[in-house]
Design a protein that fits this description.
With about 90 residues, the protein is α+β, with helices and mostly antiparallel strands. About 10% of the residues lie in helices and about 30% in strands.
Length: about 90
């Protein structure tokens, strides 16, 4: 599936580090239930969890649009904000 064809209103689980742009997005997961999780290098810090829309994430980091072939159960990682996305 092309992430660009997913509704921009789709909920995304993330953290304040992503939302406040204090750390770049380095991890994206599209789990088996169809939920997106987007994290920075701090990881899934549930003390700082936020729920935003996919549209919010695309505004924060346009490189997420590069994920044109993402399927349920897949995860992607990159070393830093300028590195290419790698399926893990």
């Amino acid at each position: 599936m092309d992430i660009n064809n997913v509704s921009k209103d789709t909920a995304v689980i993330t953290t304040k580090f992503v939302v406040e742009k204090t750390s770049p997005i380095v991890y994206i997961s599209f789990d088996e239930e169809g939920d997106f999780q987007v994290f920075s290098e701090e990881g899934a810090d549930m003390d700082h969890v936020k729920v935003v829309t996919l549209g919010d994430i695309l505004v924060l980091d346009k490189s997420v649009c590069q994920l044109t072939d993402i399927n349920r159960g897949e995860r992607f990682y990159r070393e830093n904000q300028t590195a290419p996305w790698q399926k893990i």
